[in-house]
Amino acid sequence: MKAPADLVLLPQWVMPIEPSGPADSAKASFSAPSGSQHPCGTLADHAVVVQDGRILDVLPAAAATARYDAAQTVPLPTHALMPGLVNLHGHAAMSLLRGFADDQPLMAWLNDHIWPAEKQHVSEALVRDGTLLAAAEMLAGGITCCNDMYFYPQAAGEAFLQAGMRATLGLIVLEFPSAYASDADDYLAKGLAMRDALRGEPLLSFAFAPHAPYTVGDATFVRIGTLAEQLGLPIHTHIHETADEIRDSLKQHGLRPLERLARLGLLGPNFIGVHAIHLDDAEIELLARRGCHVAHCPSSGLKLASGIAPIAGLIRAGVNVGFGTDGAASNNRLDLFAEMRLAALLAKGASGDAAALPAAAALEAATLGAARALNLDSQIGSIVPGKRADLIAVDLHGHSSQPVFDPVSHLVYVTGREHVTHVWIDGKLKLNDRRLVDLDTDDLTARAAYWRTKLTA
Q: Residue 453: CB partners within 8 Å, gap ≥ 6?
């Protein structure tokens, strides 16, 4: 008698991500026989079986057909099936500020454009609409989970739930007032209340999100460190994004920002440093020794002329790296396929080592590495029985994708978000043949037009 299953997926290739395969994916051969395992863990002619939102089994396609009686079987004969991408850093609601202030360095961009606009316009309604718009873009591009930092996180959480998308909500903290909160204590109180209100939602998790060392004081950082340890939450903050940030910290505190946070007790396995562009060798070693994580946002760093993070050195030292899009206001695209490719190319060019960030390592950083930083790697990030069924199908059939010698290489260097055809989160279909299932794109376009008019009035 066959075992029941909700869903059986039959792709051409399965990219399980773990256990990791050989690092030298560029030499992968495409001549392995049907049903065998390619280098980098890639499985040909295998099935992924889903039951109750979890991955039940990964096995050869013929064996799956014989073993399981599925309510639905989805053939994907020209596709690679992989874990959903995890966006390790973003400001989802800032999708409504896409293109609002381009071609500016970071502090001019913030002080002269973004912060004044936010002071006048940020509200629960803007955050809800902007987050829905971002969720639609991310889902259509294969991002199934994101780590968000913005005002009114409860409104963002409600929007992610409406979209059916997994998210880590940041308990944002600054010292200065905004429409959302009056001071650091108020930010923390509202963030903790938000966590209490939404903590029963299985798609949502939480992280402390102090904005940056230049907007958060020592006493507040110490309090966040204590709360994070008590509650078991990550700490997610911008760090060493610009050279000016470091110069100003030396002038004000007599310490570089990372050293300051280390002395305040913030650095550890729950720390996610965003950008981490201007690091010296001692700081890379410090991040590695403390078990910290880095959210690498290459497009944003280039667009704001902040610099290029030393990813090759971080990886050599053993620092766990994931990729982030940052917000659409400083990147203009929430596209992790683009970030993955750019990160791999920049690592090679900046280090002079063509193997600095090989395709397999980039693919792992965009999935399991980011999940590990969010303490979600026991749930998502790889295709392993028992994990949640957050999966995406990428079509490699088109002429621009031929020939396929190594599907791992193709996913990093050839394909883009436009090749994503299907997305499942918790085994539920969210993108079907490139069409969003739960979100009305015409409505989202109308909402964006409304906010464009308000923001430019």
A: none
